[in-house]
Amino acid sequence: MKKIMWLMQLVIAAAVLCGCASKPLSTTPPLSDTGVMDDYRIGVGDALQINVWRNPELTVAVPVRPDGKISMPLIGDVVAASLTATELSQNITKSLSSFVRSPQVTVIVSNPSSSDFQRRVRITGAVKSPQSIPFREGMTVLDLVLIAGGPNEFASANKARLYRKVNGELKVYKIRLDDLMSDGEVETNYPLQPSDIVSVPERAF
């Protein structure tokens, strides 16, 4: 009987470990996760300057419409939203190749009006004042938490999380917020990046 109980405990422990492994949490973002933001992606409302070398009649200044497209001579509507300037340039070059011999296309984002939302950091959950604010170089988790007024009385601060997209993949990092604010343990006071989200859960009562 004892042997059966021991085997059952072993199976349960293995199942728990597998469950934890399915949603890994990193303690510290690796160096590759911090630093320069990914290439800017064009958004609705941005103004673009599109130059086609030696074809001034095809060179245009256009806004990105609410449907995410722009209009170009000869080729008509082209999807621009969510592309980088390089990707859009390549798509226009390919489309113009049916009309122009060896087109050379340059795309410049002359007014990145949608960048405000791409370059924000946000804090949600059990804080006194949830915030969505423009990213500033040098900001840390603690800066964002203080701007939000700190955790509220329902917060489970040591279970806070930092959510960050890295190469298109969402990664989650532990933040021991109570240890950071009460004891000065700065190991999880990570430098922030544009689009980071800090979430502070409530305690389970």
Structure description:
The chain has 205 residues and is of the alpha+beta class. The protein has two domains: 47-113, 2-Layer Sandwich (wza like fold), CATH 3.30.1950; 117-200, Outer membrane lipoprotein wza fold like. Helices cover 24% and strands 26% of the residues. The chain has helices at residues 2-21, 85-96, 115-118, 141-147, 177-183; strands at residues 47-52, 60-63, 69-72, 76-79, 105-111, 120-125, 131-134, 160-166, 169-175, 197-200. The strands form three sheets. It has a five-stranded mixed β-sheet. A three-stranded antiparallel β-sheet has the order 2-1-5, with helices on one face. The chain is elongated, with a radius of gyration of 24 Å. It starts with a helix and ends in a 5-residue tail after the last strand. Mean pLDDT is 86; it is low at 1-23.
